[in-house]
Write a structure and sequence with these properties.
By secondary structure, the protein is mainly α. It has four helices and no strands. The protein folds into two domains: 49 residues; 58 residues.
Amino acid sequence: VVFFLRLLEAQLQDQRREHEEEVEALKNEVDAMKEEMEKQQQAFLQTLQLSPEAQVEFGLQQEITRLTNENLDLKELLEKLEKNEKKLKKQLKIYMKKVQDFEASQAMVPAERRRHERNMQVAVQRKEKDFQGMLEYYKEDEPLLIRNLIT
């Protein structure tokens, strides 16, 4: 019973700590939003004091700033996606080379060896029923087994 109470107390303390951290993060977020709102209010009040032409120019400057920031964010995203594309292309080339090497190694295996491998496959299938997942094979048969597993 004491162990159970200690366990519950530890869980309660963990939850309390997580809650306090979450509340602190939310307070920081609210403070940041308040600061941003105050800046926007000051800018709005300054805009109201300007002439109509100056208000339009100020609005255009604000929009240019917003679009510039948005463009920078999009450029960063584009660079990230391009890096990912290059990485995936490299992986594709590696896998294509492995497939070609595997196919080339299979083409070099004599017909008699292939018949022997087919006979081994039948034996493997029977063993699978007995052992359900255990498999015995020769090291040189590994590429053929991998190909058959994939297909």
